[in-house]
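Hi R.,

Here's the chain you asked about this morning:
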Amino acid sequence: MRWMFCISLLVVAGCGGNHGPELPVSGSVTLDDKPVADALVRFFPDKDTDPTSSGHGRTGTDGKFIVTSGTGKKGLAPGRYKVTVNKAVNVQAGDSEQGAGAIVEGLDIKDDFPPYYSNPAQTVLAYTITGDGKPIEIKLESKKKK
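And here is the predicted structure, written out as tokens:
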């Protein structure tokens, strides 16, 4: 009877959103060729990638980041991902500066980047994770090319 309990524990431990090996993912974010510090880089699985796989990383002062998956491990499952970059900045009351990002309703913050970089539904950023070990270079521009 005791061995049945042990086998049950092993089966339950092995059943938890396993989506394949997580491959190391790192990179850098620049805006107009300058490093972006303290930005949140998020990876959302695209339509043919395991929907349970996602991850994020925060840039350092040098603009570099390392991705941690939703399971808390370093890296992501192989596949294609939509990517967003967000950097919240405080807006002073009465601040008349019109930034590229949308004002968050009910809060005195706005996103420092426009929706085509910061919104998962509108982002133009997408990368394929293959495990080749090459850092991802996310090059943002302050003015969108037409």
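One quick note: The domain at 20-86+115-140 is CATH 2.60.40.1120 (Immunoglobulin-like).

Cheers,
M.
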